[in-house]
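User: Here's a protein and a ligand (adenosine-5'-diphosphate). What would the complex look like?
Assistant: Let me lay out the input and then the predicted complex.
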Amino acid sequence: MLSASDVIYVLEKMGTVIAENKEYLTELDSAIGDADHGINMTKGFDAVKSKLEDIKQKNIDNIGEILKITGMTLVSTVGGAAGPLYGTAFMKAALAVMGKTEVDIRDFQNIMEGALAGVKMRGKAEISDKTMVDALEPAVNILRESKDKELNEIELLNNVRLAALQGMEYTKGIQARKGRASYLGARSIGHQDPGATSSYLLLNTIYQTVEEIKGKDINGG
Ligand code: ADP
Ligand code: MG
């Protein structure tokens, strides 16, 4: 179980990781786009960080509300394709946990189902179009397939981020069919998709941060 303050902590870590990878994401986007993905994402998550301060001050503990505010902030501050896409992802994810003050791994599955549906609704991309969907959908599939397996949460989150990593790597070999990179046609082959990379980074952050939180629990801290 994660509390609302744990979720806030995960969102803050996402902002830190995105900022640390600002140049890397922008470099990837310079090869097949317009060299702004890292800039866009950092701007958005910086704005989210200051909203999270508000949320903490107001003691908002509705996790759905926290994710909704995050999504609305991303939509309104991030230019380019990624802002509306990630914004919609967080807003759809919010609906899955509206009113909840704690979330478990099945809630996380519902969050990820909402996020993926939001991205696909907004961007109309499918798997193999060389977008963030190539990282997100395999990650959701791991959660779907995990229902009857006896994995603990950390093992499952590790498998989720590994699936996203594999999806991200897979984007290198394929041609873009959606977004700005699609204008390059076959010349987009050989380059890793920036949006799939940011999606992997976010899922990796969830894994690492939940592991950190749970580690503290075990040690009584
Ligand atoms: P822009 O392309 O407008 O400059 P960004 O550079 O911030 O926006 O984001 C680019 C990323 O957005 C791409 O790498 C891709 O993963 C993702 N993307 C673009 N179009 C779509 C779409 N229609 N569906 C899903 N993801 C998309
Ligand atoms: Mg761009």
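Summary: The first helix runs from residue 4 to 20.
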